[in-house]
What does this fold into?
Amino acid sequence: MVKLGAHMSIAGGYYKAVDAAAELDMDVVQLFTKNNNQWNAKEISDGEVAQFAKSLKETGVGNPLSHASYLINLASPKDELWAKSIESMVVEWQRAALLGLDGVVVHPGAFVESDEQAGLERIVQGVARAAEQVDAKDCWLLLENTAGQGSCLGWSMEQLGWMLERTGESMRVGVCLDTCHAHAAGYDFASESGFKAWEKDAKKHGVLDAIRALHLNDSKKGCGSRVDRHEHIGLGTIGREGFARVLKHRVLKKWPMYLETEKGQDESGQEWDAVNLQVLRELAS
Ligand SMILES: [Zn+2]
It folds into this structure.
């Protein structure tokens, strides 16, 4: 059985994300452990940790995962921002470990005014420095593939493979595969041949075996658009067949999958998360 869930709000407490996921019959949940647009956060209390664990246990929701702040740029050529990003990555990773999460997902970074190679080297160094400072055996740092907008790195399997080769399992570094980002980056997930080409590339660069979670999002923009706009499952340029292939893939189906699609209700008043989950469950069966 494929494990499906979504990114949920922590408004009112971390356990609220778990309870809301359970309410919608999700198997897994992703959350922020701090405000994703701010550097600082107050410490997580013992009470919050206990309440979170209790909710997981009571609801049966599993594989909790966090998404790191969007301010972090481990590829930054600016020393000050780079140092701050590493520091913040350490905090994110420690918070995830404290809450007993499977891991924390981060966008590798953008090289801005340097170049691809310099950016990739910065990311590897930054991740290594963070890993040194975090003692969390079962909590992984997951590099997320990006759509390749602007100077964002990690859109190609080759770039991800390059970073993994220099970090990887010994540092508890893996990959979170986002379907929308892969498609927008130029891997045609809408076609059988495009998906096979992605699979071949992911295998070749050691990415396929490093995947530990997936973000399931359809894409508003076309394959190769390099634009990151999530769409509801089946309603975008990837389409239902594309998701059926992902859900049935012998390696991918083993890992927890999280929706990051828009919240709210469809025309009939049903929660979009519930609608998307239903589509995914149909396609997975
Ligand atoms: Zn994502």
The chain is about 40% helix and 15% strand. The radius of gyration is 18 Å. The mean pLDDT is 97. The CA atoms of residues 142 and 175 lie 5 Å apart.
